Target: Multiple sugar transport system permease protein
Amino acid sequence: MRKKINPWLAGNIPLLVAVALPAALFLSVLVYFAGWAITFSFTDLETIGRKSVNWDWVGLKNYIRLFTRQGFLQSLWVTVIFTFFSAVIGQTIIGFLLAVALRGKRGLLKTTVEVSIMLGWLLPDIVAAFLWSASASQTGLINRVIIEPLGFAPINFMNDYALVVVIIANTWKGSAWSYLLFSAALDAVPKEIIEAAKVDGTTPIQRLWKVVIPMIRPHIATNMLFITIWTFTYFPLIYALTGGGPGNDTNVLAIFLYQTSFDVHRLGYGSAISVAMLLIVGALSIFYLRLLKEPK
Model:
């Protein structure tokens, strides 16, 4: 059996084990904590009080509660809206359009656009939340510079359109990833193919739709995979900007999980929420991984 192994691999097994050991250790830690979360999801464990020590097994009660109480389903719907418009529509489309528009460009315009979108990506979430809160408040920059000069009464965007503000803020903050990925993908498209399409008399839209997009389809799926997972489980910017309010308007699943586990102290129910999120993200990952496969 050993003779069938690649000679280099056979002679460097200790090195391979040493390289694989950190990854195996990291994976073991992930499995360990995931196992505890799944275990706690079948209990009535709480973070304080008697149930923090003397907890009981409750079976599927926490999972039944997910679909019989309004909190989880409402937060799931808010999360779906937030993820769809911020990640699928916002970051992907804006990042792609910017990459297409600036492809091959040089000079001040491209530098200004790249610095602007990179600034949002590099800013800490707390700082970004403060900037958007200050800009979208009733006395903020948007009202003072745009709304009031047009003769309209000030609008309290943070109260009346909180989810819209959060979606725009996260799109602004995360579009840099999509832009960088699509820029690299477009640069890898052979110029000869584009020139051949031009010779055939195709329009720029036709070249984009029928030539470029099919060639970078795996990159589009990869981008969608990452930003959908990140956005679906996103917490810092939303919590710092709105805290899940007003009411439950921006109460995405990550915030609902935090509130349930540490504000209401129901860690068992919170574990069930985390397992449900894990299953949803897993299903989305499988969907996108299927898109990565080349069509037969």
Notes: Residues 164 and 183 are 27 Å apart (CA to CA). The mean pLDDT is 89. The chain has one domain: 65-293.
